[in-house]
Amino acid sequence: MTARVIDGKATAAALRERIAGEVVRFRDAHGRAPGLAVVLVGDDPASTVYVRSKGKATLEAGMESFEHKLPADTGEKELLELVDRLNDDPAVDGILIQLPLPRHIDADKVLTRIDPDKDVDGFHPLNAGRLAVGLDGFVACTPLGCLKLLRAERGDLSGLNAVVIGRSNIVGKPMAQLLLAESCTVTIAHSRTHDLPAVVRGADIVVAAVGRPEMVKGDWLKPDATVIDVGINRIEAEEDGKGRLVGDVDFASASVVAGAISPVPGGVGPMTIACLIRNTLVSAARRHGFSLPEDL
Ligand SMILES: Nc1nc2c(c(=O)[nH]1)N[C@@H](CN(C=O)c1ccc(C(=O)N[C@@H](CCC(=O)O)C(=O)O)cc1)CN2
């Protein structure tokens, strides 16, 4: 058996096209475009690429992009003052602080300073709490993107056994909450889980977000499982002289057993950016009482 490959690039492109259509309606109604401010501190190469992609996607959706690139030695106080200005700026509907931040800055303090109603990354504790109790808020873009891929692949998820590998605040925990809200039976596995392969073997849905290259093997999977790979691991150049990007799942062995699997690259990554654009439009719409399609 060979698994279907879940095409995150195509799903993200379709979502971004729908968003662009809604942005036209929003502009016609309100005379301005939704605006996203992205803040990058330092010059981490991967973060620089992601921030560039976010700015490009924002503009392609017809929205305003405000990029703030600050030197690596920017002080915490200065960053907090920028967040305060963005909170007060009516042209800014969404604020994103690119992670990771340099070590001398307390990331929790900065993320908590963002106005929760402009927190399009969904990292503010108030939004994490809203998700946990089923209130409207912002859901972190990567887990939201994973859920959209799962719904497109499996339709109704209720009653399915889901295993989320990884318990981070930005992926594992919100992913588990989203799956619970879909009425899945959810297990969160992590580095202390006993016999992880046995736990994963019971899952209809596996979301791997552990940050360990190709850790999940095909013989860990239940036949026909749906596998979502969140990992983005850069492997150093081998004898061919080229580095490569791999996920947390060993694609070669997993795709023989799974029913469907998202690849790396081209799976969850593009959905993360599409969901950021989506959350920014949702923020602008909420601030103006503008209605959007339920399923956006
Ligand atoms: N404030 C945030 N910081 C970070 C987030 C986030 O959601 N909010 N997530 C990650 C990085 N990230 C977005 O910022 C991100 C990572 C990867 C991709 C992506 O499209 N990846 C491509 C491959 C790209 C490549 O070749 O490197 C893919 O998977 O196809 C998009 C966004 C950490 N920081």
From TrEMBL:
Tagged with keyword rRNA-binding: no
InterPro entries according to UniProt: Aminoacid_DH-like_N_sf, NAD(P)-bd_dom_sf, THF_DH/CycHdrlase, THF_DH/CycHdrlase_cat_dom, THF_DH/CycHdrlase_CS, THF_DH/CycHdrlase_NAD-bd_dom
All copies of domain Tetrahydrofolate dehydrogenase/cyclohydrolase catalytic, residue ranges: 6-121
Isomerase recorded as keyword: no
Keywords: Amino-acid biosynthesis, Histidine biosynthesis, Hydrolase, Methionine biosynthesis, Multifunctional enzyme, NADP, One-carbon metabolism, Oxidoreductase, Purine biosynthesis
Binding-site list for NADP(+): G166, R167, S168, I232
An example Gene Ontology molecular-function term: methenyltetrahydrofolate cyclohydrolase activity
Gene Ontology CC, one term: cytosol
GO terms classed as biological process: L-histidine biosynthetic process; methionine biosynthetic process; purine nucleotide biosynthetic process; tetrahydrofolate interconversion
Pfam families, sorted: THF_DHG_CYH, THF_DHG_CYH_C
E.C. no: 1.5.1.5, 3.5.4.9
Catalysed conversion reaction: (6R)-5,10-methenyltetrahydrofolate + H2O = (6R)-10-formyltetrahydrofolate + H(+); (6R)-5,10-methylene-5,6,7,8-tetrahydrofolate + NADP(+) = (6R)-5,10-methenyltetrahydrofolate + NADPH
Domain Tetrahydrofolate dehydrogenase/cyclohydrolase NAD(P)-binding: from-to ranges: 140-286
Transmembrane parts of this sequence: none
Job of this protein: Catalyzes the oxidation of 5,10-methylenetetrahydrofolate to 5,10-methenyltetrahydrofolate and then the hydrolysis of 5,10-methenyltetrahydrofolate to 10-formyltetrahydrofolate.
Subunit structure of this chain's protein: Homodimer.
Similarity remark: Belongs to the tetrahydrofolate dehydrogenase/cyclohydrolase family.
Name by which UniProt lists this protein: Bifunctional protein FolD
Native source organism of the sequence: Sphingomonas xanthus
